[in-house]
Amino acid sequence: MKKISRRNWTLIWVLGMTGQICWNVENSWFNTFVYDKIAPEPAIVSWMVGVSAAVSTFCAFLIGTWGDRIGRRKPFICVGYILWGLFTFLFGATEMLPKDPLFIAAAAVVLMDAVMSFFGSVGNDGGFSPWTTDISDESNRGTLGGALAVMPVFATIFGAVVSGVIIDQIDFFAFFGLMGAIVAAMGVLGLFTLEDAPGLRPKRDEKGFWHQFLSVFKWSTVRGNRELFWVFLVMTVYFIGFNVYFPYITIYFVNYMGYDYGMTGILQGVGLIAASVMTIPAARFIDKGRMAQVIGAALACNTAGLLLVSVSQQVAVLLAGIFGAGIGYILVLQATTAWIKNLYPEEQRGQFEGIKQIFFVCMPMIIGPAIATQVINRLGVEMEVNGVMGMVPAPSLFAISALLTLLTLAPLWKAGRLSRERQAAGTV
Questions:
Q1: How many domains, the chain?
Q2: pTM of the model
Q3: Can you give the pLDDT at residue 353?
Q4: Which range marks the domain in which residue 216 is found?
Q5: Number of C-beta neighbours around residue 238 at 10 A
Q6: Residue 233: exposed, middle, or buried by beta-carbon count in 10 A (0-12, 13-18, 19+)?
Q7: Where does 215-314 have alpha helices with state H?
């Protein structure tokens, strides 16, 4: 049994929360920034989200393999966070570019977001995430999964409530600078406080780096890890539905419903704070291996919540909807995080973090926003945003997301059956 030390728990929360806040700034406010400062064009958001997802996925493979080979995570975490912060700040400078022709500004925000995502993936996906696997085991991954699951929620609350207030006061450029400085400072802190897991050893393929890098891209890898790959598919289908609405939720509240950034943050924050308490009872079920049941309940809450958001503009109903969708998001993330960490091959944890990124980030963040672009262009509302006409999302976006979320039940059934077979056989 590996006990997670107090110092490591502190680092998990400090580095994890900082990273999730920065991801939230990218996923929520970069998109809103594009609508406000570049153009109200959903295709730009779709390209930005998709390209950054592909870049971060490749980076997770690259750094995960590198970390496995040298038996270290710390250098990637620290350097990655420092450069992540720097390029978060530089992203805000794109608002100073000319908007005519629009292609130049659009290409610049896509490129800068991709560079920022690369270094974010170095620090968070390729370094921090495998490090949390290295220092934990099955006895505490339900609790660890709960902590890692609520971090994006707390980050969303911070990103919605606090960020909205700050942006109302100082605007986007200064806000991105502030966030970048905080992330870079955490990278510096890690240089002096973080240590790799004592049992971590180099795992080298004697045929070279690229042979080791490509070694997981084999059908035998899938056959040998069937349950793990079905859980990956659960993540893919769920997060496709999630990425249909989430990149546009702030745009919807601000532009369609007319709230300011502060009120938008309060609506999201209150609902998500209430939802986060569900991680405590869920951890008990997860530690007992009942991940599929937790996810099934989460899907019901998620679907009901999104449907409520789509049918009403009353504050009480919106809060109930965000609460339901928040429960779904938190519990799916908590359960799948613990589930996959229990199934990772010990000698390839870093590489399998890269595989996870394909299913968790790359495919959902390419497919989801692409679907959303079509939904917004066909079913959205044309209106003026800062003097420019464009299409903004309408309630239909949330209804379609709810229906797509239900498709998660198909891979969940198969993953749950394989999990029960493994537990009945007494294998771990």
A1: 1
A2: 0.75
A3: 75
A4: 6-196+204-379+391-424
A5: 29
A6: middle
A7: 219-224, 226-245, 249-251, 261-276, 279-287, 291-311
